[in-house]
Amino acid sequence: MTDSGDLNKNRARVLKALAHPTRLFLVEKLNEGECCVCKLVEHINADFSTVSRHLAVLKNAGILEDEKRGQLVFYRLRCPCVLKFIKCIEEAVRTLKPKRKKQAGKVAGEE
Amino acid sequence: MTDSGDLNKNRARVLKALAHPTRLFLVEKLNEGECCVCKLVEHINADFSTVSRHLAVLKNAGILEDEKRGQLVFYRLRCPCVLKFIKCIEEAVRTLKPKRKKQAGKVAGEE
DNA sequence: CCGATATTTGGTTATTATTGAAAATAGGAA
DNA sequence: TTCCTATTTTCAATAATAACCAAATATCGG
Predict the structure, then answer these.
(1) DSSP symbol at B67
(2) What predicted TM-score, i.e. pTM, was given to this entire model?
(3) Out of A88, B5, B28, B70, which could bridge B1 as a Cys pair, Cβ 3.0 to 4.6 Å?
(4) Is B7-87 CATH 1.10.10.10?
């Protein structure tokens, strides 16, 4: 990359944070409004700690922010643009029906 | 995830394919028009094989398609929506300035 | 202070990603 | 055919992710 290196690094950072089914689910859920971790966990078939870590990833990417009130920690989207962003993904996914010979799911180094 | 599991898996698949600086660079470049691998390699500080693999990842995700003409292989975007998609990322990145690890306190209007 | 609840963190393990070098493949040229 | 040239694939090593469980932390209520 001769130019726009940092730019793409930043882009990639945000994309990477979102590139997980559970994290997308969390973002979707939080788009409805802030929510505490225990409530989120109810909807996800995974360990409490796992959910907590996913939330941390999104927070570190700048997508979420958290606030502790009492014993609960509430997470919320830091900006509504993320939703628009997801909509874009949606369109892309719809349009990019991979014409696959075998599989289109692997990202690298497949068998 | 009780619902929308597959949907988010598909979303995540596309996001994951894009979540790499080099691959974003390739998508950007190809938005200007189709290009053969050797030309792309010139702009990227990486091994030929590395670039080829990144292109394969994007192709498997349905984002690119390729066509061999002579000894050259040309890659191109499969749909223009990807560019719009990148624009969305751009907006998100601009808005979501990631917080630092340590955030002593919130200063109003901190930018 | 003590116990209960909510959340994060550390340890461990398994899986997946990334890369350069080298080997394999494919098509054009000599 | 044999040699190039462009590209892909394999190999081997390393790094990064993701998941679970258990332990640590923090806060509330008594």
Answers:
(1) E
(2) 0.85
(3) B5
(4) yes
The candidate with the shortest Cα–Cα distance to A77, out of A33, A39, A41, A40, is A33
CA of B73, C1' of C26: distance in angstroms: 11
CATH fold for domain A5-95? Arc Repressor Mutant, subunit A (1.10.10)
- Whether residue B43 and residue A105 make contact (CB cut-off 8 A), yes or no, is no
**A65 vs B contacts (CB less than 8 Å):** 99
Give the start-to-end residue ranges of the domains of chain B: 7-87
Residue-wise pLDDT for A49-66, tens only, equals: 999 999 999 999 999 999
Establish whether the CB of A18 is closer than 7 Å to any nucleic acid atom in strand D: no
CA A87/CA B69 separation, integer angstroms:
36
Task: With CA atoms as reference, report the closest residue to A51 among A19, A26, A79, A70.
Answer: A26
Count of residues making up chain A: 111
Q: What span, in angstroms and rounded, lies between the C-alpha atoms of A24 and A32? A: 13
- For B90-111, write each residue's pLDDT tens digit: 777 677 664 443 333 333 333 3
